[in-house]
Amino acid sequence: MVITTTSTIVIIITIIIIIIIVIIIITITIIIIIIIITVIIIITIIIIIIIIIIIIIIIIIIIIIIIIIIITTTTTTIIVVIINIIIIIIVIITIIVITITIIITIVIITIIVLVE
Prior knowledge:
membrane, transmembrane, ABC transmembrane type-1 domain-containing protein, transmembrane helix
């Protein structure tokens, strides 16, 4: 009689311990999934904001360029303005490429950190 009661107690304790471990594992995975989702949402919001800022800057630069072209009428100044436009476009493209690479590296680093 004593042997059966102790064995049932041991079985009950192990079942309780297994249930607790499973609950802990499930909660940890849910927390990790929530963290990953929030990080991805934050990163996409940051990317959208950066893209909007870049688009606004490009629109402002194009408006300034159009105003400069309208103000200057001589051919030599138009050539100079075109050269300046080309330089500005190259600078804008490099800034966009740099920001996109920075964003991609941040995303990759956060994903690697979250996976580990």
